[in-house]
C-alpha cells in the first residue's frame, strides 16, 4: 500500500473578485487512493477540484494564493508547464461531454495533441483506454460511429477513456455519476475501484452512499473551508466535528 502524498495543498485561498470561495485549504492527496469531497451545494467543491489542474485559470477575476504541490512541484509556479499539468491531472465532468466526433477520434484526440501519429500506436491506445474504462466490449465494433450516439452512461465511460488515453497520474471527477442511471452509476463506481490501482482519484459527490462505497478518504467542505479530512470509515462512523455529523446524518445540506 502506497503512503505517498501525490499532491499536497497548503494554505490555499481562492477569490472570485471580492468573494472568497476557498479559505486556507490544506490537504494531502494520497497516491492510488480515492478521495471524496462532500459538502452542501455552493461550499466550494468544484472550485477546489478545478484548482488542482488550474482550470480556474480560464475564469476571469480569479485570484489564488497558497501552494499546490504535485510530486513536490508547485503547479502555480513557473517550474510547472500548463500543458504537462493538464496531461498529468485529467478531469471528468458532471455531464458527459464527448466531442461531436467518432468514438475513435474522441480517444485519440489528446494523444495526437501530444504528438503521437502512428496509426498502430493510436489503435493500441484506443483499445487500452476503452478497456480501462470498462467500455471496450460495448463499442469495439462501432469505433467509427459518433460518440454522441451512445447512452449517457456509455458517453461518460468514453469521457473516462478519453481522460485515460493521455496517461494521467491523477483523475479529477466532478459528480461523474449524477447524470447517470443506477446501473451506469454502479459501472462507474466499480471502475473507480479498478482505476485507483494505477491512478490517484479525487471525486466530488453529493451521494453519501457513493462516498462510502468508493472512497478511502473523505473531506467535508462547508462555506469554503475544509471542516475535516479523514479515512472515509471514520468520517461516516465517528466524525470529529459536530457539523460533519450533522451533514452526513442529513440534518442539513
Ligand atoms: N465563476 C464564478 N464566479 C463567481 N463566483 C463563483 C464562480 N463559480 C462559483 N462561484 C461561487 O463560489 C462558491 C463555490 O461554488 P462551487 O461551484 O465551487 O460549489 P460546489 O460545492 O461545487 O457546489 P455544487 O454542489 O452545487 O456543485 C459559490 O458561492 C459559487 O456561487
Ligand atoms: Mg460543484
UniProtKB/TrEMBL annotation:
It is a peripheral membrane protein. GO terms for cellular component: plasma membrane. Keywords: ATP-binding, Cell membrane, Membrane, Nucleotide-binding, Phosphate transport, Translocase, Transport. The keyword S-adenosyl-L-methionine does not apply. One of its GO terms (biological process) is phosphate ion transmembrane transport. Pfam families: ABC_tran. InterPro entries: AAA+_ATPase, ABC_transporter-like_ATP-bd, ABC_transporter-like_CS, P-loop_NTPase, PstB-like. Residues 7-248 form the ABC transporter domain. Gene3D superfamilies: P-loop containing nucleotide triphosphate hydrolases (3.40.50.300). It is found in: Cell inner membrane. PROSITE patterns: ABC_TRANSPORTER_1, ABC_TRANSPORTER_2. NCBIfam families: 3a0107s01c2 (TIGR00972). This is Phosphate ABC transporter ATP-binding protein (PhoT family). It comes from Marinisporobacter balticus.
Amino acid at each position: 500500500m502506497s503512503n505517498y502524498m501525490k499532491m499536497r495543498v497548503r494554505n490555499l485561498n481562492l477569490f472570485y473578485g471580492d468573494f472568497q470561495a476557498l479559505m486556507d485549504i490544506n490537504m494531502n492527496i494520497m497516491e492510488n487512493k480515492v478521495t471524496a469531497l462532500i459538502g452542501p451545494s455552493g461550499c466550494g467543491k468544484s472550485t477546489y477540484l478545478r484548482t488542482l489542474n488550474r482550470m480556474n485559470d480560464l475564469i476571469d477575476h480569479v485570484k489564488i494564493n497558497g501552494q499546490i504541490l504535485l510530486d513536490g512541484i508547485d503547479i502555480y509556479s513557473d517550474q510547472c508547464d500548463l500543458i504537462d499539468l493538464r496531461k498529468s491531472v485529467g478531469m471528468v465532468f458532471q455531464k458527459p461531454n464527448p466531442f461531436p466526433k467518432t468514438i475513435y477520434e474522441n480517444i485519440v484526440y489528446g494523444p495526437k495533441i501530444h504528438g503521437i501519429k502512428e496509426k498502430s500506436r493510436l489503435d493500441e491506445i484506443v483499445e487500452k483506454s476503452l478497456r480501462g474504462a470498462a467500455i471496450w466490449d460495448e463499442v469495439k465494433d462501432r469505433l467509427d460511429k459518433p460518440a454522441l450516439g451512445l447512452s449517457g452512461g456509455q458517453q461518460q465511460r468514453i469521457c473516462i477513456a478519453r481522460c485515460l488515453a493521455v496517461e494521467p497520474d491523477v483523475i479529477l471527477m466532478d459528480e461523474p455519476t449524477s447524470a447517470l442511471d443506477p446501473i451506469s452509476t454502479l459501472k462507474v463506481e466499480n471502475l473507480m475501484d479498478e482505476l485507483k490501482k494505477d491512478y490517484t482519484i479525487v471525486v466530488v459527490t453529493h451521494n453519501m452512499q457513493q462516498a462510502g462505497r468508493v472512497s478511502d478518504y473523505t473531506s467535508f467542505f462547508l462555506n469554503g473551508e475544509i471542516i475535516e479530512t479523514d479515512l472515509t470509515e471514520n468520517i461516516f462512523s465517528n466524525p470529529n466535528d459536530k457539523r460533519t455529523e450533522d451533514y452526513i446524518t442529513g440534518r442539513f445540506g
